[in-house]
Every structure is written in C-alpha cells, then in structure tokens.
Design goal:
about 230 residues, alpha+beta, Glutaredoxin, Glutathione S-transferase Yfyf (Class Pi), Chain A, domain 2, five-stranded mixed sheet, 5 strands, globular, binds glutathione
Length: about 230
Amino acid sequence: MHASTPTPQAPFALPGPQLPRLYTFRRCPYAMRARMALLQAGRDFEAVEVSLRDKPASLLALSPKATVPVLQLPDGSVIEESWDIMRWALAASDALGWWTRAQSPANLDLVQRNDGDFKLHLDRWKYPQRYASETLTPDAHRDRALDVLLRPLEARLQGTPFLGGATACATELAVMPFVRQFASVNPAWFAALDLPSLRSWLNGWLVNPLFVACMVKLPAEGANRFPPIPSPMP
Ligand SMILES: N[C@@H](CCC(=O)N[C@@H](CS)C(=O)NCC(=O)O)C(=O)O
C-alpha cells in the first residue's frame, strides 16, 4: 500500500476529462476494488476498458508503469494505485464510515496481507507455468495463501458479518475480488474447505448489488459513463 497523493498537475498540463476517468480492466481484482469504491461513494465517473495486451497510448502517457486501475481527474492529476483511488473516492466525505472503519490496524493488516503474500502465493498456484523456476509446488503456494489470509479472515468473520462490523467497509472491497479469484481456481475444492464463515461472506458479496454493478460490461471502445448504483450500501 502506498500513501501517495495524486500527481500534481504540471503548470502547462492539458486539462483532464470532464468526469473522473478510470482506466480499468473488467476482470482485474485491483480494478474491481476501485470501481466498487467509486460506486459506493456515489462518484460519477467514466471508464475506459483497457486491453492489457494493447494498452492505449493515452494510458501509457498518463502512467508509464501502465497497470490498471488508473484514475485521471478533471484537474489533470493522476492516481495510479487502486488503494489510493479507493481513498480518493471514499475518504473525503465519509458519512457512512466505510473508509474510517478500514483504517483499524487489523483491517489495514488484512489489506497488506492480501496485496503482499496472498497475491504472491495465489499467482504461483493459479499460473504455475509463469513461475517455472519456483522451488515450492503450486499446492504448497495454495496452502500458504490459505494460512496468510483465508484462515485469518475466517477467524475474523466468525464473530461478525462484515470486516467493518455490523456493516461493510473499504477492506471488504479491497480483499473480496482476490478471495473470489482464489475460490474460482477450484470451486469444488474451495467448497469443501472448513471455512464456512468466509464462504458465506464471499457468497454474499458475489450477489451484492455493488459487486454486480461493478461488473457491468461496457463497450470496448472509448470512455463510457459508468452506470451509477441507485443508493450506497448502508
Ligand atoms: N499495485 C497496483 C497493481 C495493479 C495491477 O497489477 N494490475 C494488473 C491487472 S490485474 C495490471 O495492470 N498488470 C499489468 C499488465 O498485465 O500488463 C494497484 O494496486 O493498482
């Protein structure tokens, strides 16, 4: 997690788009968390669906590291990390406490685990062909992913419906897309794990209107206004 702020606008920078413009990839878990945060915060935005194999020149010009999501603001500044996009969306006016509740040490630790070791082990389990020189087997990576994030999540969720307590918070948005990815590698195996609270939390999120809304299919071309949700989650 980086505590970066938007890149300041250069004195002669071109003005940004009229609406905040999100460069996104529908199936990217980092982009999902950014889209959900923008929707939950009621931010009007447009989205450019990026092909990771053929990234648009406009994205490369804004962000040479060229990962998604990237958010370009109307003042021309650019936010290049998903967690920072979530902060921009949710923190400024946090009447519902979604950002505040995500700042507890336990919740920050979960995001750190997710973005660090969990993601590392998930990738090495899911895409073993990309990591040919690995010493651990794919299944050993899978088991480490379980230990580093999923068992601690199960312990947390046994006592509470959400990581935010009685209501959800930004931590869930940050972590859920990655848990979903883990579960989808081998759904039958996942369904048999002794992680009942985690599974019902995940199943709830998969049908949650906020998640469903963030997965809308947009035209492949151009910047398209992202359909807002009728009302935020409580
Ligand atoms: N730390 C970044 C990671 C973003 C990331 O790695 N996104 C992937 C897609 S899921 C990506 O853009 N990879 C570049 C590529 O595949 O070329 C963030 O939180 O925004």
